[in-house]
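Batch job 17 of 40 flagged for manual review because the log was empty.
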Amino acid sequence: MAPISLNYIIAVILYCDEDLLSFRFSSTYRPLDKAESIEHMIERHRNYYWFGRYLRELVEGFGKEIEVEDGAYYHGISGNVRFTSTIAKFHHPMSTTKQVAVAQRFAGNNGFIISVTIHQFGVPYFDCNWISKYGNEEESLFIGGIFPLQIANIINCLTGEQYAKYLRAINMLGHIFDANYNIYEMKEEDDKLIQSMIDDKDVPSYIRNLFISYRHRIKLNLGEIVKYSPYLSSILLTNAKNRKTSFINLNFLQTLFPKSNSIQFSNILLSSEYIYNISTSLAQYQWSSLNSLRYMM
């Protein structure tokens, strides 16, 4: 590997040490307000083109990849930020630390702390600890969003609430409704928390809002759901013990995922009666956002 050139060194020093520059640069990755156009935001970002390019090339060319053994990286967010998924690509520059106390200083008393971990693939980051004048912060820089990270925990600095167990359950629900199972992780507590979120019982308001805005596409492997999630199988299927005579409760799916635009079923036993039931159910419930329905054996 070629040595790091001076341009990359200068870029990362400026990013770590000059707080105002870092703030203004990061703000070009998002609209200033609802009225700002994409064109105007891009125009602001153009002023930092080389700065952003050097930082991204530094991270992707000279950084390390996050691993399972690394554990969580913490990031402080001032203000109330609503996520729409627990799996996310962070395209903008994101400074993280291994210390919760450091992240809390950036979040303030009314902000949030998120912890991110590896999802499926190693995401590159650059260890800034050795070059930053704030070496005690143990800063690591993520930028580019080649692969997603998993949000493992959200800490509400105002109330002290930690949402890790709910995020875990939502992640498991995501695996279930994406036909992508990490079944070895599925626990009885996950099933119970999924039930509490669906029933909206004793759920923190932040998690309720996250859960409502969660999914737009549904992939169902019915055999796996029956095998690993007793609660979901009991409300998804009219007869979970015998899938040959069971029908899918589309009313429940529509209630849970009102904005979904696609459903894909797999591991089902197709019949003309089955298809007729689904078709008439869709017409009955008037699922206006739904535009795609697929069956896979």
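Reviewer: the log was empty due to a logging misconfiguration, but the result itself is present. Residues 175-296 form one domain. Unflagging and moving on to job 18.
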